[in-house]
Design a protein that fits this description.
alpha+beta; eight-stranded mixed β-sheet; 24 strands; 38% helix; elongated
Length: 608
């Protein structure tokens, strides 16, 4: 066939195939237009998840009749004033959305420019235009789309259930709302309110970060707002702000990681990789942090025109951006000190509430005994009387042996330290400490594991890990393959404080270990390191995987569960935790301590 120009309607349908995949794609384009128009309120209405009806109403600056006619033309936009594709300051700069939507559905647009006496309405149905004509509208713009994909019915079969399509719309709105806390958003589906996000109040707008954190809390949950650490850094014209969650607040997927570049929500592998790198020694590999990052940079340093739906970006200097994100997150987590997320205590209290019989067993037994039936029948009255007398409160004089001074009313030591003073060790694993207004339960192995890791990192940064020679070399038998992998990295391991040499074909001799590890399980450490190094292969140096290697060493060199500690040792561990960054979680992202406030404990016993 000879070469020919395609009909305009077919061209629009092809463009729609790139931009309009589902109802959420339509909502994204229309809401971005509303944000570009300076709207402060955006209302979205759906029917059947958007498959039969979509409406987006805003209070932006609107359009006059001439602007409305141009808006439905291909490649017509008001957002490239200088025809410069480098310095892009708006969302909908392509000018393809409205004609593409009109090519596959029944589109109507009503708009009234600010200060204009008349509103105008124009329609596009399957690419066929009608209007504009006068209409009633107080201001702003209202866009309605009926029967999405009626002009290309083959695409209808790719749509999912109404609930799935609705969820996709909610996700789009939430992402845009996080970037624009000054705008109010609402969503209804079949007359039911699905989402409502009020605009930030004036007093919040005056406080740096407060309005954004409130909006993030509305979208990501109050747990994130309560356990997020603010960050703000700038380097070479690139400004990074946002909030990053404490490691102990984590999820099984990366769905709660939100990234924005110049106000535009994006999904970028570079940015997601940077987040993973920043948390690599704080979380297990199958857990993911909660993060919301906002990157602002000169438009010439980022290309937002590499994807039809503008969901991806390309940076001029990816290494600079990655380093900025990793450094900012790590500094923010350092500033958090030993803090652990409040969700840890909440989960502990919830577990008390769900234990079978906890809430009712004691009251029922008490009521039965005093009611004279049930279990009370098995008690001998005389025995009960004797027990009550034996456990009656003693007078202060009787309770205090002669010559002993009265006990102090307040334990000042417990008030002076955030993690309190050790009171007991239970199960040879957990330290119970009393604080000024509650109690703390510490996992001694997890806590010491983090302390050892942080000390190793400081030692490495200061020039190397000090080594301790073994009186008798430890011989560790390994498969020949693992022996070869270890010996190939012997120089790097020596920098980390572990000196090994060959001992036959299927064993290595360990002559020196990191002094920080003390009395550690040398054989277990070497076996675990051998497996990790063999898995890494030859492509990576140990310094690239430094956090993983140090984490393995710290695990084997920490105080083991089951070891009994003296009171002074327990208190020393608590003081080290208070002075060490990230000590609120172990190397795998699990909490090292649980804090219960006195008010929470009183509620457990019905005192509040």
């Amino acid at each position: 066939m000879p070469i020919r120009l395609l009909p305009a309607n077919l061209v629009n349908q092809i463009a729609a195939g790139e931009v309009i995949e589902r109802p959420a794609s339509v909502v994204k384009e229309l809401v971005e237009n509303a944000v570009d128009a300076g709207a402060t309120r955006i209302a979205v209405e759906l029917r059947e998840g958007g498959k039969s009806f979509i409406s987006v109403t805003d209070d932006g600056h609107g359009m006059d009749r001439a602007g409305l006619e141009l808006a439905i033309q291909r490649h017509a936009t008001s957002k490239l004033p200088d025809d410069d594709l480098v310095h892009i300051g708006f969302f909908g700069f392509r000018g393809e959305a409205l004609p593409s939507i009109g090519a596959v559905g029944r589109l109507s647009i009503a708009s009234r420019a600010r200060g204009a006496e008349q509103a105008w309405l124009i329609r596009v149905e399957g690419g066929e235009k009608s209007g504009p004509e006068p209409t009633a509208l107080s201001g702003g713009t209202r866009v309605e789309l009926r029967d999405l994909f009626y002009a290309v019915p083959a695409r209808l079969k790719f749509l999912k259930t109404a609930r799935s399509e609705q969820n996709a719309v909610v996700e789009i709105l939430e992402r845009l709302a996080m970037a624009h806390p000054e705008v109010a958003f609402s969503l209804t589906d079949d007359g039911r309110n699905v989402l409502r996000l009020d605009a930030a109040q004036a007093e919040l707008m005056d406080t740096p970060g407060a309005a954004r954190l409130k909006r993030l809390g509305d979208v990501m949950g109050r747990d994130f707002a309560d356990n997020a650490v603010a960050l703000s850094v700038e380097r070479e014209g690139i400004h990074l702000t946002g909030f990053t969650g404490l490691p102990t607040l984590n999820r099984a997927t990366a769905s709660s990681q939100y990234l924005f570049v110049n106000g535009r929500p994006v999904r970028d592998r570079l940015l997601q990789g940077a987040i993973r790198g920043a948390y690599q020694d704080f979380l297990a590999r199958d857990r993911h942090p909660l993060v919301a990052l906002f990157l602002d940079c000169p438009p010439e340093l980022v290309d937002v025109n590499v994807h039809p739906a503008k969901a991806e970006v390309r940076f001029q200097d990816p290494a600079l951006v990655r380093g900025l994100i990793v450094g900012a997150i790590r500094r923010a987590l350092d500033a958090a000190g030993h803090r652990a997320s409040t969700t840890v205590a909440g989960a502990a209290l919830a577990s008390f509430g769900t234990m079978p019989g906890v809430a009712t067993a004691m009251p029922n037994a008490y009521q039965a005994m005093h009611a004279g039936h049930g279990q009370a029948g098995r008690f001998n009255a005389g025995v009960v009387q004797q027990a009550m007398a034996a456990f009656a409160p003693l007078s202060p004089e009787m309770a205090r042996p002669s010559g002993m001074a009265p006990a102090p009313q307040q334990d000042n030591a417990a008030q002076d330290y955030p993690l309190g003073v050790a009171r007991a060790q239970i199960f040879s694993t957990y330290i119970v400490a009393q604080t000024k207004d509650g109690m703390v339960i510490v996992d001694q192995h997890a806590a010491h594991e983090r302390l050892v890791l942080e000390r190793m990192k400081v030692a490495l940064a200061g020039g190397g890990v000090k080594r301790q020679a073994l009186l008798i070399p430890e011989i560790v038998e390994l498969p020949e393959k693992l022996v070869g992998a270890l010996l190939a990295r012997s120089v790097e391991l020596e920098e980390l404080g572990l000196a090994i040499e060959a001992f036959g074909h299927d064993a290595v001799a360990v002559r020196e270990v990191p002094a920080l590890l003390g009395q550690s399980d040398v054989k277990g450490l070497v076996r675990d390191l051998a497996e990790e190094i063999a898995e890494l292969g030859a492509a990576f140096s140990l310094k690239e995987k430094l956090e993983d290697i140090c984490g393995t060493m710290a695990c084997h060199g920490s105080v083991r569960a089951g070891r009994q500690l003296l009171p002074a040792e327990m208190d020393a561990l608590l003081r080290q935790m208070e002075a060490t960054p990230h000590s609120g979680q172990c190397n795998h992202g699990r909490p090292t301590y649980v804090e219960l406030k006195l008010a929470d404990i009183e509620r457990l016993f019905g005192r509040r």
